[in-house]
Amino acid sequence: MKLFDYPGVPNPRRLSIFLSEKGLDFPRTQINLMKGEQFAEDFRCKSPNCDVPVLELDDGNCISQTNAICRYLEAEYPEPPLFGRNALEIGLVEMWNNICFTNGFQAVADLFRNGSDWFEGRALIGPHNYDKIPALVERGKQRITNFYQDIDQHLKGKDYFVKGYFSVADITAVVTVDFATWTGMTVPATCEHLLNWHQRVSERPSIKANS
Ligand SMILES: N[C@@H](CCC(=O)N[C@@H](CS)C(=O)NCC(=O)O)C(=O)O
């Protein structure tokens, strides 16, 4: 298997942490996003949404979208399970992974892309060009502030998003919190449960190795 990624950016980082937790690694090819290599015809055949990461299987099949790749790897390499160990955990992991991605990660992406000159005409990832919407900058900040308060309350009395069990929901959340610092948004001191959780997960070897 082969991995197409670009070091340091958030979604490949989510996958790299997941791989480290599983004890997996694959040969990597860099797709230089700064040079627009994600739009090259030969890469588009592997990644219809022109984004990284992409996992190319030995039979030539390609899977893009971080969650889809993680799902595939969980099925192929079940140990240690990162999507839940029983029906309840599977449901709770899916729930918190979705909340963290939708309310957290996408809010940061809105703020980041709509607030930067670099993304002129490229406000959304993918094969089509979209103009920036300046109002999404302020809305992004509000959403991130609310997201921090919401997950701070959820994490009260818990070590991880699903109590007693580190999962992909924690991976999505830690990458989101770190990604937000690119926009100048940090966790406020009042969110002590969130700050404690962030410190705890940041000590994990998988996260230290991919920081
Ligand atoms: N929904 C995709 C998003 C992947 C994504 O946003 N990748 C970024 C890097 S973090 C990318 O490839 N950006 C290409 C671009 O900006 O054109 C996933 O979950 O993997």
Can you describe this structure?
With 211 residues, this protein is α+β, with helices and mostly antiparallel strands. Strands 2-1-3-4 form a four-stranded mixed beta sheet. The protein has helices at residues 10-22, 41-44, 66-76, 87-114, 135-155, 168-180, 192-202, 205-208, and strands at 2-5, 28-30, 54-56, 62-64. It binds glutathione. Residues 9-11, 33, 38, 51-52, 65-67, 125 line the site of glutathione.
Q: Report the average pLDDT across residues.
A: 98
Q: SSE order in H/E notation?
A: EHEHEEHHHHHH
Largest sheet: 4 strands, mixed
Compute the number of helices. 8
Low-confidence stretches: none
Sheet with most strands: strand arrangement = 2-1-3-4
β-strand percent reads 5-15%
Radius of gyration: 17 Å
Based on secondary structure, the structural category is alpha+beta
Shape, principal axes of CA atoms: globular
How many domains? 2
CATH topology of the largest domain: Glutathione S-transferase Yfyf (Class Pi), Chain A, domain 2
What's the CATH architecture of the largest domain? Answer: Up-down Bundle
* Overall strand count: 4
Pfam families: GST_C_3, GST_N
InterPro entries: Glutathione-S-Trfase_C-like, Glutathione-S-Trfase_C_sf, Glutathione_S-Trfase, Glutathione_S-Trfase_N, GST_C, Gtt2-like_N, Thioredoxin-like_sf
Domain GST N-terminal: 1-81
Protein name: Glutathione S-transferase family protein
Features:
2 domains; 4-stranded mixed beta sheet; alpha+beta; binds glutathione; Glutathione S-transferase Yfyf (Class Pi), Chain A, domain 2; 211 residues
